[in-house]
Design goal:
CATH architecture of the largest domain: 3-Layer(aba) Sandwich
Largest sheet: 7 strands, parallel
Number of helices: 17
Radius of gyration: 22 Å
Strand content: 15-25%
Shape: globular
CATH superfamily of the largest domain: Glycogen Phosphorylase B
Strand order of the largest sheet: 5-3-1-6-7-8-9
CATH class of the largest domain: Alpha Beta
Number of domains: 2
Number of strands: 15
Structural class: alpha/beta
Oligomer: single chain
Helix content: 40-55%
CATH topology of the largest domain: Rossmann fold
Length: about 425
């Protein structure tokens, strides 16, 4: 059996979006010929929120090696505290010790802590392992997402980080044997920037559907704690980040919600839309990013925002206990939400708001519990507003789910099947 060392700094019992590809794949690696070892940070020195249930969902027989990152408190005295910087040397030391002790065929970096990608070429030269990177988000962005007024944190730090990314990304990628990405758009951007890559280097794999996660919340009787299950109140839920790239999408949505409120006042009086975990800043520094937009369009009485992130399984409980789900996309075409299949697996009616070139479109349109409203260039298009209006009516009148069709469509997108694809990428890397 071949061996893969998985570098995932954030890991259970800390909860963060970038750990879930690995977490839901761990039960299946061995079935496809790969013995995994996870290299991660200790919970005390990582970032993210505490989630002990998440740790309990990880198979007990997986080798997990934890190392302490540098103290965030001490590092902030010197002007930096982000986990990327604090974990780089500790992970290098711990990974080098593992690689000296045992030969790993592949080192797989599955994280949005992109500075850790710099370890790939170093370990490859020293130990000969093949390198596979997982691009769940873009690392270097040629067009800035933020302005001085919208940047989370200090502008100069953001600009410095982008400058470093522009130089570090090509260095790291020269060591790559294969690249996995959640989005065809990210593949296009990388292949245009780095002409030494071709189609053989890339495989697009979205986050799979972890059916057992919904079984887990029922076994543990996990309940949402954000709203009571009041009779007569209709509750729609969006769980995930907000941000400048989503503002224009939300503005068109709230504009149409205001029309619904005017035309259907009795329904609007019963409707509550909950936006949860919209800001990834730590609890002490979080702030609301959705309610101000709702206020601008006169629907603040319908919208409730809980900007703090909540534990993973509580999010699934929200999906399980609501009446419908919103999936808010980005104005960036390459964006695909990692929570896509968690929403689909809830079997609740879903209104998805996406760019027409988002890779999420191809998946979402296959499932009978999803209504897709899409725009071609900008969310201000009238065709997008009209589609949202139809989607709002569809949510109100959605009927019983076509279960046989749903199950047929799900077969390819399960965590097990996409882990098989992932392992085929590892094998391709070894054949180079």
């Amino acid at each position: 059996m071949r061996k893969v060392l998985i570098v995932s700094p954030r890991f259970a019992p800390k909860s963060a979006p970038d750990l879930h590809r690995i977490r839901i794949s761990l039960p299946y690696y061995r079935a496809f010929g790969w013995e995994p070892t996870v290299l991660c940070l200790t919970p005390e020195t990582s970032d993210g929120i505490d989630d002990q249930l998440l740790a309990e969902s990880v198979p007990k027989d997986i080798d997990i090696v934890r190392v302490s990152a540098w103290s965030e408190e001490k590092c902030r005295r010197f002007g930096f505290g982000h986990v990327d910087y604090r974990c780089l040397l500790p992970l290098y030391m711990a990974g080098s010790a593992l690689l000296k002790k045992s030969a790993y065929d592949v080192i797989f970096f599955s994280t949005t802590a992109f500075l850790t990608f710099l370890l790939g070429p170093i370990w490859k030269r020293r130990f000969g392992s093949k390198i596979v990177y997982d691009f769940q988000d873009p690392w270097y962005q040629e067009t800035s997402l933020y302005t001085k007024s919208t940047v989370p944190g200090k502008w100069w730090k953001y600009r410095l980080g982008q400058m470093m990314s522009r130089h570090f990304e090509p260095y790291a990628l020269r060591g790559a044997d294969q690249i996995i990405s959640v989005s065809e758009g990210y593949v296009k951007n990388l292949s245009e920037r780095y002409p030494w890559f071709d189609a053989r280097h890339f495989t697009v794999i979205p986050f799979g559907g972890a059916i057992h996660d919904f079984d887990f919340i029922k076994e543990r009787a996990v309940r949402n704690t954000l709203f009571p299950l009041n009779a007569g109140i209709i509750r729609w839920v969006y769980a995930g980040r907000g941000g400048p790239d989503m503002d224009a999408v939300l503005m068109t949505f709230f504009e149409q919600l205001a029309v619904l409120k005017k035309n259907e006042p009795a329904f609007a009086a019963r409707l509550r839309i909950h936006f949860v975990g919209t800001n990834y800043s730590p609890a002490a520094r979080t702030f609301k990013v959705v309610e101000p937009l709702a206020l601008r369009y006169g629907v603040a009485d319908i919208v409730d925002e809980h900007s703090d992130r909540i534990p993973y399984h509580e999010t699934l409980a929200l999906y399980d206990q609501c009446d419908a789900i919103l999936l808010v996309g980005s104005s960036l075409a390459e964006y695909i939400p990692s929570k896509l299949f968690n929403c689909i697996l809830s079997k609740k009616p879903i209104l998805a708001l996406f760019h027409s070139r988002s890779p999420a479109i191809k998946i979402a349109l296959r499932f009978p519990n999803v209504f897709v409203a899409q725009f071609r260039s900008t969310p201000s298009e009238s065709i997008f507003a009209d589609s949202i209006a139809k989607g709002l009516q569809w949510l109100r009148t959605s009927k019983n789910l076509d279960i046989p069709r749903f199950n047929r469509e799900l077969e390819y997108w399960t965590a097990k099947e996409l882990t098989r694809v992932q392992c085929s990428v590892f094998s391709s890397a070894c054949e180079k």
